[in-house]
Amino acid sequence: MNEQFTLKRTLQLDIERTEEGQFTLLAKDEHDFTLAPDELASYLFFSNERELFGLLAHTGEHHLQLRADQLLHAFSDMHPYVSFQGLAKKDDTAITSIQEASDAWMKADIWNYAEVDDNDIRFNYDQAGISKEAAYFIHDAVRGKLTTTAIHPDQFPALLPHLKQFGWPGETSSAIPVNVAFRLTEPEDDSDSEWLLETVIVSERGTHWAPAVRKLLSPIEEALPAKWKPYAKEITKRQAEMTSFITSVELSFQESFLSQSMADAEVRLFIQHDLALLQSFGYPIILPAWLKSVTESRMRIRTNADTHSYKSATGLDEVLSFDWNFSLAGHEIDRDSFRKLVDENREYIRAGDQWFHIDPLWLKKIRELMDRADAGEWTVKDLLFQDIPEEFIPLEEDEELDDPLFAFTMQQSLRNYMEMLSDKKGLPATGISKDLHAELRPYQEEGYNWLVFMRDNRFGACLADDMGLGKTIQLITYLLNVHGRAETATPSLIICPTSVLGNWQKEIERFAPTLSVYTHYGPSRAKDEQFKERIEQLKPDIILTTYGTSTQDGEMLAETEFASITLDEAQNIKNMQTKQSRAIRKLHGQHHIALTGTPIENRLSELWAIFDFIHKGYFGGFRKFTDDYIIPIERDDSEAVKRKLRAKIRPFLLRRTKNDPELQLNLPKKLEQNEYCPLTTEQAALYESFLEETKFKLETLTGFERKGLILKMLSRLKQLCNHPALFLKEPNTSAMQMMSRSEKLDRIVSMAGDIAGNGEQCLIFTQYIGMGQLIRQCLSELYAIDAPFLTGSMPKGQRDRLVEAFQDGEFPIFILSLKAGGTGLNLTGANHVLHADRWWNPAVENQATDRAYRIGQTKFVHVHKFVTIGTIEEKIDKMLEEKAALSADLIQSSQWLTELTDRELDELLSFDR
């Protein structure tokens, strides 16, 4: 008895569908050994050499990635010695559906069961006699094949009739020695003649043949020369295939060669729609040479704007006048000829020996703009604040486009005036009150003049100078001007964080003692009628309050129209949906001002909230702002929309930085560097264990719960990077024992001790009370240094005394909670800044650094940022660099932390030892 020996292998497949509609395949043999992707490809495509070699670029370390159409082709001709089964039950089900779909896919009649559904091709599986799952695979296969063409989804309806009648375009082979092509010919002159679309035969030598005029209506076989008559059937079929794509014109031929007259509008549709389909599948199309480069020759329109008066602020209301010029390929066109082109709705016109294409809708739009402009609809104010069609918005100097279709220019005198307003240079000098007890720097005087100019023209203002450049003194000078006017009858309101309330009191008293100040703050503050009586009695120039108080008393404060309302650290209203932001944006002032060193920290919605306060309605409602700016910028990263937004906010925003050479600040240099620290063995073990636990929890959560867990997890990991005792919530032991458990703590304490030993001063910022207390304990035990710790719970009076004592050099090290001490404090006595743990927002971290690096600093400032190696701190540090660059441009992505993709989150939740 002979034993039969078989070499047939059975492979187990794991099949996963990607979001893009492709499939990843992993195969294991009978010994549970994972096959190399190349070997799997050789089994799947053993009979299709071209497909096999083309797949090499789509293999990963273990997986093979296929489009659905490739997958169905693979299962249509299986390897004789290899069979496949699923690695899991779901894979068995998938293989059954793939095999069923493959059998149907290879049958020509499958397209008879296809139908168009919202610009998509789907299959009626009941009529086709296949399962719903198989129909899904076939749908993905169609989409996969379309990715290899230039077909757009809205062209699916035009493609479907062809598929039903002829199958997939270009897959039918022909042995005839000629090609069938379409030829488009322009009119003979610029009169009433039309375009001609016709079928031509291209010989092996490349010559073009078309039937004589007398044979245009004859059947194809009769019209052909004798040598090509044997190919009449193939030529007829190929012409039918090609004409099935034409939707731009209703064809009038039957069995003859195509010879179709076309109007301008039909030619445009043919070029825009039919041509793309035909060329995508390799059908030859012969176009006029000039039409291939039609975009290079279009009508140019230039207009020059001017006014009759532009030498004072009243010039903002001057009506713009426009001078129009038209040209085509360098030839001037008079105004009447242009209007005739628009009225006749022309698209293709002849100039000399050349033909040109023009867009009639675009010309019509320009005609409407001309009518509106000539009617005096727009003023200099509209031009400055971009309340004018975008065609009239001049490009930034470094963003000039080559040969624009519509070029907007301004007379030099108007341009100079516009530059003065946009750059805030050379504005009318307002005069500084003699009651100001200070001397303004030149750039501060410019800022003061700008604030007054914006008030006089009823425009809100955002003064966004770097921290430390003197926003406070500029505003105080402005307030002296406002309250020195006879018409000012109500007080100005300043809203600020609680931590700088005392600072505002002292600064106003120091620089403008003639201004009377009333502080509306504290549990015993006057309310309702008592508040009104108090204000009427005292008649203060300035009312000082905090964000929290103004929120609680919002309805009461909204009953008064203040001479001005100023928000200090205006980023506090960035979250527009909070009760605080909504309450403040409901307040009424004759002029609204925002002071901030960070006009936008994370999202464009913050920019909207600030602008909705300073100049309500400028960007419209938030829904409109989302459609116009947030989606194009944060989702699509549109440079054009970024440019438009910068132009829109520029007149309202005055921002100078310490690095601006024009300011001539003569500040000392600043060096920032990371101090990298490894985790201890204890920290590393806890870190890895917590990561595994968190990853498991994340898999069970979605939406809001998932975001909450991510934020909680990040905070816990940062505490662990600082010290395991903080993570484990253990009580502190001796300084030496605590430092032995954290390299970071050891480095921070040692560095701070060295700085103090050298006679220098430093600031240490941390987000965690426990970390601050731990550093303070270690400094006390090891260096006998009593370092105060400023937190949000510290009373204002004690905080002010500590700041003054540090500036006087009474103690060398000051520990601060990042949120409580990150803004509003002047701590130039320090020339070292230590960030014990990293804040996830570079703007907030930079604000903290600017407590030391600001005007008044005379020493070199060294900033040390402590980062634990291989952890989220190091990974997010890289993200912070990108984030800081975006923030500097006032444009920042919304994709951050809780909105990270799964892949980014997996990378973040890994530990590199």
TrEMBL record:
Keywords: ATP-binding, Helicase, Hydrolase, Nucleotide-binding. It holds the Pfam family SNF2-rel_dom. The keyword ATP-binding applies. GO terms for molecular function: helicase activity; hydrolase activity. InterPro entries: DUF3670, Helicase_ATP-bd, Helicase_C-like, P-loop_NTPase, SNF2-like_sf, SNF2/RAD54-like_C, SNF2_N. Its EC number is 3.6.4.-. Coiled coil: none annotated. PROSITE patterns: HELICASE_ATP_BIND_1, HELICASE_CTER. It comes from the Bacteria. It is an enzyme of class 3 (hydrolase). It comes from Sporosarcina soli. Residues 744-909 form the Helicase C-terminal domain. Residues 452-617 form the Helicase ATP-binding domain. This is DEAD/DEAH box helicase.
